[in-house]
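stuck on whats below:

***
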Amino acid sequence: MSNMKHRDALFDLANNAMSKAYVPYSRFPVGAAILTKTGKLYAGCNVENAAYPEGTCAEAGAIAAMVLDGETQIQDIYVIGKGEELVTPCGGCRQKIREFSSVDTKIHICGAEGVRKSLTMNELLPFSFGPENLGQAS
C-alpha cells in the first residue's frame, strides 16, 4: 500500500513544513504533506498576515503546490500541529481536500509522536458536496 511505503517520508515532510510556518499572530504552526495517486509528494505550511485571519492554511498550500504541478488526485494527506488535541483540517480545508479526493483518500492527523488518527474522506466530511454534484467527473 502506498500509504505504508511513504508514511515516514510524509510525516517528515509535514513536520518540516510545520517548522517553516509563518504564524506571528496565532503562534500555532501547522504543516501538511500530500501523496498523489501517481506517487508525487507536496507540502504546505500555514501562512498568516496582519489582516488576520486572512491567512492560508497548510492544507491549502500543499494542494496549491500539487495543482501547480499538474496533479489532481490526493491519495493520502498528513496534517500535523502542536498540542494535545487532534489538529484536524478546518471546514474550508475539508472541502478543498474533498475536491481532489476519492473514496480511497485517507487523512492522517498527526502530533509530534506520529499519526494520531486516520480517517477516510467520508469520515472527515460526511455527505459532502463535490464535482459529481454539479455533473462533473471527479
Q: What stands out?
A: Strands lie at 30-36, 41-45, 74-81, 106-111, 114-120. Residues 115 and 126 are 21 Å apart (CA to CA).
